[in-house]
Amino acid sequence: MHFRHIMLFYFKKGKNTVQTTKQIYGSDAVVERTVQKWFTRFKRGDFNAEDQECSGRSSVDDDQIAALI
After folding, report:
1. What is the percent of the chain with per-residue pLDDT over 90, rounded to a whole number?
2. Which of 3, 17, 36, 58 is the most buried (most CB within 10 A)?
3. Contacts from 16-22 at CB under 8 Å and sequence distance 24+?
């Protein structure tokens, strides 16, 4: 999450994704594609640095599975 705040900081300073990636690249924790994804969100006005729920798999209770079997 701290990297997201750093990305937002550089976004608000007018830096591009390449410049931002180079600034935080020393940690090897962020690749340019990730910075691009977050900059796209920031451009849409979404400045929430929290993870959003994804529409992937839902969690299923083991008891529900056992009942179905």
Report:
1. 22
2. 17
3. none
